[in-house]
Hints:
InterPro entries: Arg_MeTrfase, Methyltransf_25, SAM-dependent_MTases_sf. By secondary structure, the protein is an alpha+beta fold. 24% of the residues lie in helices and 37% in strands.
Amino acid sequence: xxxxxxxxxxxxxxxxxxxxxxxxxxxxxxxxxxxxxxxxxxxxxxxxxxxxxxxxxxxxxxxxxxxxxxxxxxxxxxxxxxxxxxxxxxxxxxxxxxxxxxxxxxxxxxxxxxxxxxxxxxxxxxxxxxxxxxxxxxxxxxxxxxxxxxxxxxxxxxxxxxxxxxxxxxxxxxxxxxxxxxxxxxxxxxxxxxxxxxxxxxxxxxxxxxxxxxxxxxxxxxxxxxxxxxxxxxxxxxxxxxxxxxxxxxxxxxxxxxxxxxxxxxxxxxxxxxxxxxxxxxxxxxxxxxxxxxxxxxxxxxxxxx
Length: 306
């Protein structure tokens, strides 16, 4: 019988089907930055650990330079698939695919680089932050310092008010949407620039709860009926070039329960709170917004997402 964590993992997306992994392999916006960042971070002869290996592709990128790669995967079906795929590729023999829980696994020796791609917009659903924080504590207890290099190194999260079209061939449905970052959507109007609400540095201790209240100056007249959540992963900092290797994930747009009429120059206040790895509805339930007018008017209060 599955324990509570295993049940939650299945629900939150840890046990995703193989065809979804195909979509990730096809996503060049994801694959190319990871390949570049791993090539930069993994030096010849390095020892590497990947937590949540999936098909094993990121471990395989590391194997081109590493002397040994430990690839940890919790889903037994994906363990079998990863072993099969790696056997078909050069250097695949350097990768040991281990069926284990990333919350509990430690390698048998110190490692130089830890790769973890349990990532979702807003650090929701997937357990990236909790897994890394747990790993750091257990690794230091067993091996002492220093900690390995983490990939990604950091995450920047931002939020932005929108006027979002929810008409689908005449059917009105305010629904959670995911949008590609390189596509212009005519039904999406940015009502103010995005504001950063959290920066995660995996080289430092991190809290598991994000609580934020911030203000926006509305740039155009319209109706604010959604909030866009933006997540940029800093896979590696390239110090000698003063640059970074980044992965900007697709946008997540959450509808507001009650749209807000806004005018250019109005000040919009937004607040929310959620736990890293939590379900999307947990963020929706906490999402609050109100418009603070420059004139001496009472604030227009908007209820939490129903």
